[in-house]
Every structure is written in C-alpha cells, then in structure tokens.
Amino acid sequence: MRSGTLFRALVLLALLVFPFVANDFWVQQIGGRTLGLGTVALSLVFLAAHGGMLSLGQMALAGVAGYAVAYFTAPVAGVGLLLPLPAALAIALGLATFTGLLIGLIAVRTSGIYTLMLTLAIAMGFYYLALQNYALFNGFTGFTQVDAPDIAGVSFAEPRAFYWLCIGAALGCYGLVTYLATTPFGLAMQAARDNPRRLSALGYHVASLRVAAFGVAGLIAGIGGVLGLWLNGSISPGSIALVPTIDVLMAAVLGGLGHPVGAYVGALLFVIVQNFAIDFIDRERFNTLIGLIFLGVVLFSPDGVIGLVRHVRALFAPRSEKSGPAIDAVAGPDPANDKT
C-alpha cells in the first residue's frame, strides 16, 4: 500500500474513532467547529489552489446560507417564514451559490490583492446590510433560537449526531473539490490560473470559468455556514463581521492554500488555539498568540502545515522515493506545480 493511501486511511480511521473516545465538548466544540470552519475555508482553498484567486467573501457566503436557513426555519419577532427543512436548505444553498456567482461576476476581472480587497468590500457591505436591515435579517439581534433539526428521530443537537453530520458534509465537500480537480472544468481552471492568455487563445472563456468557480465555492461555503448556524444555535451580524472573515483566511493559510485537506488542518489548529489560549495567556491576548503562530507558519513554511509535513517527509523518505516523482501523502500533487 502506498504511503499516501495509508496516511489517508489512518486519518479517516481517527475521524471515525474520535467521537467514541472524546467527551461531548471535544466532539462538538472542537470536532464539529473544526469541520464547519474548515468547510468554509475549503471554499477559499478551492479558489486559491485551482483558480489562483483569493477571496475574503467566503464568510459572507456562509452567512447568506445561515441567514436563509434561520429565516425559513426559525422565525423570530415576525421576521421569517416557516418552511419544511428540505425546502429551506435548498433555498439557502441555492442563494449561497447564486451569491457566489454574483461575486464572481464582479471580481472575475481583477487579480491578486485587488480581488482580495474587492471581495472584502463586498463582505463588509453584506455585514452592514445585515446590521441595519430588520425586515430580512432582524438587525443587530439576528436569529437567536435556531435549533439543529431532528431527522428520522435523530436529534442533531446531540454532540455525536452533529459530529457525524459534519463528517458527512466535510467528506462530501472534500470529495467534490478533489473530483473537480480531475475534470475538464478543473483542469481548465488550473490552466487559467497558470496562463489565462494561452487558455483564451485555445477558445476557452476564462471569465466564465472563474465565475463558475466562485459559484462552486459559494455552495461549499454555504454548507459550512449551515453547520456553523446549527452549532451556535444563532446567527447575527457579528457572525459575518471582519474578525470571522479574517479567521477563514487564517485557517486556510495555516493549513496550506495549495491543499484541500489543509483547510481542515488549519481550522483544527485555529480552533484549538482559540479554545485553549486562555489556559496559557489572557483571553484578550488570543489574537496576539494566533498572530504569532500565523507569522511563524508563514515564515518557516509558506505552504502551511501541509507543506511542512511534505518537507519533513521528503527528508526522511527512502532514497528510491526521493529519486522518483514527488507525491504528497496528504493532499496529492501540489496544485501550484500542475501544468495544463
């Protein structure tokens, strides 16, 4: 068995065993939160790794789906409508995908820092809209009593049931991203990332590819937003403010922007520091601690924790592996090196 396959099998086994050996806090607040944040970060990694586009609008897309589910399943103070859960989820994920397409239409002709700042401006615009609008978003208060659903007699408010839901959603999104990378659409995206002019000369419409990528990212972010809504039991403008927006970027960079699995690795590191920083320093110093960790990872491993794993593995790899093609045991070949 190849080392990469063995590693993936061990990681999957650890994820399946985890809820049987951990207490409720670790299962829900660490495991569930990591998978929810990681799924939102995965939407950013998808854009960055396969499309070469950086976006700070992913938490806003997650907020669109979260607000929609809350609006249609937990009306409050006369705000909202009560719909069956399947219809509410379909509308929420459809809105997140559609909003992603709209953001793509606006941001598609920019690149680099300009895309980053433009998507940040859109995200902050949505934040202020939610803060000031009471007819749809209930203003500053938002929706505060949103319970996780009961389906077929299973309450997803129960920590382990919620964890299994998060595992299913995360594996589905990760599988979608890795599958798309091997399709003509994914290969064309990578070609647009590496040489858009040459791809355009071959007859492809680069802008349309990038808009479609934003739509896919919107769907993935929307799934993460729904998980976050059910975990917290509420959503408000604070859920989509500047700090949560930056948290997604930090999680993605910490794990490794070039690797889909890095979104979850970075989210795990971020969530652990967020929860246990108070045991080492004051709660108010959390941003200082996570900032120092972020700076250290960027300085010593620009490719994130996953890149560091690759480097360490290369140092200890047998001579035969070093002379052969480099294979990433965690996330496959580095998308940054793919040539289409």
Total helical elements: 14
The neighbouring-strand order within the major sheet is 1-2
What is the residue-averaged pLDDT? 87
| Range of helix content | 55-70%
Major beta sheet summary? 2 strands, antiparallel
How large is the radius of gyration? 20 Å
In total, the number of domains comes to 1
Distance between the amino and carboxyl termini: 29 Å
User: How would you classify the quaternary structure?
Assistant: single chain
Low-confidence segments, ≥5 residues, pLDDT <50? 323-340
What's the order of the H and E elements?
HHHHHEEHHHHHHHHH
Strand percentage: under 5%
Shape: globular
Beta-strand segment tally: 2
Throw out a few tags for this protein.
69% helix; mainly alpha; globular; 340 residues; disordered C terminus
What does this structure look like?
This protein is mainly α and 340 residues long. The chain has one domain (3-241). Helices cover 69% and strands 1% of the residues. It has 14 helices and 2 strands. The protein has helices spanning 3-21, 24-51, 58-73, 85-107, 113-132, 159-180, 184-194, 196-201, 206-232, 242-255, 262-276, 286-300, 304-316, 319-323, and strands at 150-151, 154-155. The chain has a two-stranded antiparallel sheet with strand order 1-2. Strand 1 and strand 2 (154-155) form a beta hairpin. Helix 4 (85-107) packs across helix 9 and helix 7 (184-194) packs across helix 9. The protein is globular and about 60 Å long. The two termini are 29 Å apart.
